[in-house]
Specification:
The structure is a single chain. It is built from nine helices and 13 strands. It is α/β, with parallel strands linked by helices and 271 residues long.
Length: 271
């Protein structure tokens, strides 16, 4: 019996429609399985770790480390610029998924957020004029104005260690350096790498130098800079630690480091 031509046409049309739908659906299904971008809170006022390029993009060591970790996790980073003292509240409010901003893992901060493994090592130093005559001691800094970035480990250390000094607080570390150059403060306590690479080695840093000892007391400075996530997000924290371990092992970290520093900042190998 010969098939009805009309039925054959309807069936063929239905088959074509089904194939077209399948072709359209396939890439959508693939995209649905791709990891969502990791939203990263960054500061952009702390060179060489993070700053704004002339084109408005956020650049720096922290940014490159974040991008490398995201790449190792087969995803991308979406950066959210936030002032440092607002970062932990913003993270807890789910405005982003993690903080990569040279934030040290301290006991006080661990009450609010969880931290990854440390991703670089540094110490705190006092920066002042090279012709300064005062000693970097509680007595020597009595009455002196010390600039610090607020809500940082350096602010906490200065308040506790130099009670007779005048503490001047700023939103960003580059604002501290500007006031130091203008003579409105006598010095600053800051991360030694940020001071060296972001100020002292630049034309603006002429006439200024590290003075006094270095400090790294865990009571004030914690375990070192880590990547912060919301408390209890063990799966995300595990992925970030895995990504960090990967870039440390495959040479990616060392390539990023050499772009910014002529010395090693890598954390010690885990035992």
């Amino acid at each position: 019996m010969t098939a009805n031509p009309f039925r054959r046409a309807v069936a063929a049309g239905a088959l074509c429609a089904a194939l077209a739908a399948a072709l359209v659906a396939t890439p959508l299904a693939t995209n649905a399985q791709a990891p969502a971008p990791l939203r990263i809170g960054v500061e952009a006022g702390y060179p060489p770790f993070s700053s704004l390029a002339p084109d408005g993009k956020v650049v720096g060591f922290d940014i490159d480390i974040a991008n490398a970790i995201c790449a190792s996790l087969k995803t991308t980073c979406a950066f959210v610029q936030t002032e440092f003292d607002a970062m932990i509240p913003a993270l807890r409010a789910k405005k982003f998924d993690a903080i990569v901003a040279s934030m040290s893992s301290t006991a006080e901060r661990r009450k609010a957020v969880d931290f990854s493994d440390v991703y670089y090592e540094s110490v705190a130093r006092f920066v002042g004029r090279t012709d300064g005559t005062f000693e970097i001691t509680p007595a020597g800094l009595k009455g002196k104005k010390i600039g610090v970035q607020r809500t940082t480990i350096h602010e906490r250390f200065v308040v506790a260690s130099f009670p007779a000094s005048q503490i001047v607080r700023y939103a960003k570390q580059d604002e501290v350096f500007l006031d130091l150059m203008a003579g409105r403060i006598d010095g600053t306590v800051v991360d030694n790498i940020a001071a060296s690479e972001g100020f002292l080695k630049t034309p603006s840093g002429k006439g200024y130098a590290f003075r006094g000892p270095s400090w790294n007391d865990p009571k004030f400075f914690g375990d070192g800079p880590g990547i912060a996530v919301r408390r209890g997000e063990a799966e995300l924290l595990g992925r970030i630690n895995k990504g960090l371990a990967t870039i440390l092992a495959d040479g990616t970290y060392q390539k990023i480091q050499s772009k910014y520093f002529d010395f090693d900042v890598a954390p010690p190998k885990k035992k």
